[in-house]
Amino acid sequence: MVRIAVDGRVVGIRGFTVPDQRVHEHPAASADWLRAARRARGLSVLTLVWLGLESTLGLAAGLSSHSVALIGWGLSALVEALASLIVVWRFTGTRTLSPNAESTAGRAVAVSFWLLVPYLIIHVAHDLDAGHRAAPTVLGIVVTTVSLVSMPALGLAKRRLGLRLASAATSGEGTQNLICAAMAGGVLAGLWLNTVGWWWVDPAVAVVLAVVAVREGAKAWHGHACHH
């Protein structure tokens, strides 16, 4: 039987339709899905640039002023950047259409969630030991304010893309961005509440975020995209 290709399908002369083998192999690879994948990768690259700047500024300022808080902030930004790097890897080249790459990326993002937990716990221990928050710096306030404003938008966009792509790695990275924003909000709120003696608010927020990081890491490990 003579067969011809029509709109991505192989059609026989008697009218029988046979699915194109390429569509059969990658049923999710629609034009809309591929656009969403490119957008997820682009947002991750943008996040990497910002987190690289944030980490560099935090570490430089922390080392020059011997500030444990700023050094810790810079190191946590590196951990968050790891999740962005994983998503860029996931949606580059032939890995874009690979279910194995998604599984590997999801578990790698889960590990990056769990790497945040020690930082959060150390942050709490440091505050409890000191009994107060460290004095604020102009750089610290600027960096945390920018994170508080920008990270929610990035995080929510990535979580929506994660649902469209059925990508736990993308959703997980978005959740990490939201955790980053919550950390920034906790720091800024703590600076103000410290003036009335409520220095414990920031470490309390950090404990809650540590629990969230463990839970979201487990979801990413099992390949569950965020639905809330």
What does this molecule look like?
By secondary structure, the protein is mainly alpha-helical. It has one domain (30-221): Alpha-lytic protease prodomain-like. The protein is built from seven helices and three strands, in the order βββααααααα. It has helices spanning 21-25, 31-65, 68-90, 99-130, 138-165, 168-193, 201-221, and strands at residues 3-6, 9-12, 17-19. A hairpin with a 4-residue loop joins strand 2 (9-12) and strand 3 (17-19). The longest helix has 35 residues, at 31-65. The protein starts with a strand and ends in a 7-residue tail after the last helix. Residues 1-25 have low confidence and may be disordered.
Can you summarize this structure?
With 228 residues, the protein is mainly alpha-helical. The protein has helices spanning 21-25, 31-65, 68-90, 99-130, 138-165, 168-193, 201-221; strands at 3-6, 9-12, 17-19. Helix content is 75%, strand content 5%.
